[in-house]
Amino acid sequence: MNLHHLAIFHAIAETGSISAAAIRVRVSQPALSRELKDFEGRLGVMLFERLPRGMRLTEPGKVLHAYSARLFAVADSAQAAMRDFADARAGQLSMGASNTIGTYVLPRFVAQFRTLFPQVGISLFVGNTGQVAQGVADLRFTVGFVEGPVRVEGVVAEEFSRDELIPVVGAQHPLARRRRANPADINGLPLLMREPGSGTRELIAELLRELDVQTGSIVEFGNTEALKQAAIHGGGIAWLPSISVVRDLQDGSVLRLPVRALGLQRPLSILRREGAYQVPAVEAFLQRVRKG
């Protein structure tokens, strides 16, 4: 069935006249009449009774109108749905984030975004940098947020902020009350680290090699909060994001080691699949993150 002819029929059925339908579909009245006659000829039935004042549906016309009404209602709904996508009012925001960003940075933005765009579905996976980068590469995540270096083919990184990793110890640690120290003072001391695959661990390991620090025993933790609690209770030296220990430094439960060389500045990056299409909802969320 010719959809153009069906649209003309639907316009006449909805408006009740050739003249009103011609205005709706932006076709001249004579052309509209010819199109309708051709449509009826193709179907082999009369769709309208021609009256002095307007058009009245025949029985076949009433049946066809019921179908056309459903069809064009679906088309209108589809157009509205696409408009919602274009206006960032719909879509799915599937994100992966490494630990610090997923725990301390993104929740605020997710809450704000949810208030502004309640129809957008949101999911957030929190893991390590390797897991997030691979998830973006595999298209399991629309977008990723990481703190460490990324070496996954097909994934591009965009820095949106920076963070400081600071070396801390619990209040009872032997180095806690030192006013001055140097990298050699931590030779052989127990260290608290994230698990292999963590971008944070890679950065710290590279720094210790550059400073020629001899690492002691290493205890691994799967998230920042567990790492912090171990440091508080005297488990060893930990490098923690400054954003995660603001209150702990204030109340003295952890102390920063006075060794400037052991501090690390690191980029916070947005990861996306190279060349992948991003729905407007994703771009709207990223704009808020970039602005901070």
UniProtKB/TrEMBL annotation:
<keyword id="KW-0805">Transcription regulation</keyword>
<dbReference type="InterPro" id="IPR036390">
    <property type="entry name" value="WH_DNA-bd_sf"/>
</dbReference>
<dbReference type="Pfam" id="PF03466">
    <property type="entry name" value="LysR_substrate"/>
</dbReference>
<comment type="similarity">
    <text>Belongs to the LysR transcriptional regulatory family.</text>
</comment>
<dbReference type="InterPro" id="IPR000847">
    <property type="entry name" value="LysR_HTH_N"/>
</dbReference>
<dbReference type="Pfam" id="PF00126">
    <property type="entry name" value="HTH_1"/>
</dbReference>
<protein>
    <submittedName>
        <fullName>LysR family transcriptional regulator</fullName>
    </submittedName>
</protein>
<dbReference type="InterPro" id="IPR005119">
    <property type="entry name" value="LysR_subst-bd"/>
</dbReference>
<feature type="domain" description="HTH lysR-type">
    <location>
        <begin position="1"/>
        <end position="58"/>
    </location>
</feature>
<dbReference type="InterPro" id="IPR036388">
    <property type="entry name" value="WH-like_DNA-bd_sf"/>
</dbReference>
<keyword id="KW-0238">DNA-binding</keyword>
<keyword id="KW-0804">Transcription</keyword>
